[in-house]
């Protein structure tokens, strides 16, 4: 159990729905608060009619979408300017303009998945993805659609599980955390395997090219050596 | 960067990622086992599953004990204590949280002993086995 969680639950019990809205909103901004665990706990408390489950879901979704939108706005206002500055840098160039342009195209193509999955599966990355989406000037309407879809799953899943399993919600929180970590490391490993395969193919292609170049050179030299003999009349 | 350097770097990162994946898979298995254990205890109404985040009404609901009985046994005389977790109550009454949890466990066990016909957890005696919690 996180050290902050008992305090958050105490606030939740004392101040009710506003405390839940505020904690989810702050967590959506990227502040490391255990939002999933808070939702699991509130789901468990809903069994004793301390909270209404439908109202909890509405509050959780609205708070997380508002927090994500603020993160997006921050990324768009500050992050895009920072990226433009990086692109124009001549003296202290950290990232080449080509890399930045490529990353922009890549995010426009694949960003939807990143936004959607980071809402419930890799929730630790949610805040960063919001900033990146803003900085890469991802269309807000599309961002909002994928964000709302992801956040709906991200709110209903822990609330429902907390409601069903009640007292065991802490153990479910552990499963959430370890599943997220396992899938993240697995994805990184798959990406690295793919990139390693590509590198090995490139290396073997270069090797083959060099070998063919050498053979060509040798053939040419043999031809050059043999040519005078052929030219000579018998 | 040379291709060979890139290859070595990539291989090192891959080894690290695979190691982390194995560790995460192991943690996942442990988490599943922990959940099964915890859920079995909770479903049997085992008092060892009482935690500091629980409120008195929640405990009363989950362990089938009257709320008023718990308040009386724990000598809680607050006007509106229903929204206080055990941790908050422990702070308010200047007591260690674990001691308060222990008192709640004793109170529930005593209630079940005194009211065996109201017991909704038929398997609890097997799980407690007469042990101290």
Biggest sheet descriptor of chain B: none
Q: Could you tell me the radius of gyration of chain A in angstroms?
A: 28 Å
The count of DSSP E runs of length 2 or more, i.e. the number of strands of chain B, is: 0
Shape annotation of chain B: elongated
| Rg for CA atoms of chain B | 23 Å
- Uncertain runs of chain B are 125-133
Total beta strand runs of chain A: 0
How far apart the termini of chain A lie comes to 96 Å
Quick check: average pLDDT of chain A? Answer: 86
Provide the β-strand percentage band of chain B: under 5%
Derived structural class of chain A:
mainly alpha
Describe the protein's architecture and organization.
- The complex is a heterodimer of chains A (about 230) and B (about 130).
- With about 230 residues, chain A is an all-alpha fold.
- Helices cover about 80% and strands about 0% of the residues of chain A.
- Chain A has helices at about 5-15, 15-30, 35-45, 55-90, 95-120, 125-135, 140-165, 170-230.
- The model of chain A has no long low-confidence stretch (mean pLDDT about 85).
- Chain B is an all-alpha fold.
- Chain B has helices spanning about 5-45, 55-60, 65-75, 85-90, 95-115, 125-130.
- In chain B, helix 4 crosses helix 5.
- Classes of the chains: A mainly alpha (about 230), B mainly alpha (about 130).
- The interface of A and B includes residues 41, 48, 172 and 195 of A.
Question: How is the secondary structure organized here?
Answer:
The complex is a heterodimer of chains A (234) and B (133).
Chain A: H1 5-15, H2 17-28, H3 35-45, H4 53-88, H5 97-120, H6 126-135, H7 140-165, H8 169-231
Helix pairs in contact in A: 1-2, 1-3, 2-4, 3-7, 3-8, 4-6, 4-7, 5-6, 5-7
Chain B: H1 3-43, H2 56-62, H3 67-74, H4 86-92, H5 97-114, H6 124-128
Sum up the structure in keywords.
heterodimer; A: 234 residues; mainly alpha; 8 helices; 0% strand; B: 133 residues; 6 helices; disordered C terminus
């Amino acid at each position: 159990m996180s050290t902050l969680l008992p305090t958050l639950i105490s606030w939740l019990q004392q101040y009710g729905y506003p405390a839940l809205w505020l904690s989810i909103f702050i967590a959506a901004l990227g502040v490391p608060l255990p939002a999933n665990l808070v939702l699991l706990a509130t789901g468990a408390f809903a069994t004793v009619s301390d909270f209404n489950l439908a109202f909890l879901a509405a509050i959780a979704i609205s708070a997380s979408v508002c927090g994500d939108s603020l993160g997006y706005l921050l990324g768009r206002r500050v992050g895009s300017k920072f990226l433009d500055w990086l692109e124009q840098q001549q003296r202290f160039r950290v990232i080449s303009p080509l890399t930045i342009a490529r990353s922009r195209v890549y995010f426009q193509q694949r960003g939807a998945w990143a936004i959607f999955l980071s809402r419930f599966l890799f929730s630790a990355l949610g805040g960063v993805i919001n900033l990146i989406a803003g900085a890469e000037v991802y269309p807000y309407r599309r961002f909002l659609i994928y964000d709302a879809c992801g956040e709906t799953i991200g709110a209903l899943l822990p609330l429902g599980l907390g409601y069903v399993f009640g007292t065991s919600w802490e153990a479910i929180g552990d499963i959430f955390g370890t599943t997220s970590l396992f899938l993240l490391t697995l994805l990184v490993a798959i990406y690295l395997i793919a990139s390693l395969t590509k590198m090995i193919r490139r290396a073997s292609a270069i090797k083959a090219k060099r070998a063919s170049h050498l053979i060509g050179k040798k053939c040419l030299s043999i031809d050059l050596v043999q040519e005078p003999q052929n030219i000579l009349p018998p | 960067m040379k291709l060979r350097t890139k290859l070595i770097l990539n291989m090192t990162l891959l080894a690290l990622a695979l190691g982390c994946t194995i560790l995460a898979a192991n943690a996942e298995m442990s988490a599943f086992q922990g959940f099964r254990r915890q859920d079995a205890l909770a479903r049997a109404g085992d008092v060892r599953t009482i935690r500091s985040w629980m409120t008195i009404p929640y405990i009363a609901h989950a362990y089938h004990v009257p709320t008023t009985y718990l308040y009386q046994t724990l000598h809680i005389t607050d006007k509106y204590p229903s929204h206080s977790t055990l941790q908050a109550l422990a702070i308010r009454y200047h007591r260690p949280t674990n001691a308060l949890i222990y008192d709640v466990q004793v109170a529930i066990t005593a209630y079940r002993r005194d009211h065996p016909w109201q017991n909704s957890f038929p398997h609890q005696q097997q799980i407690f086995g007469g042990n101290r919690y």
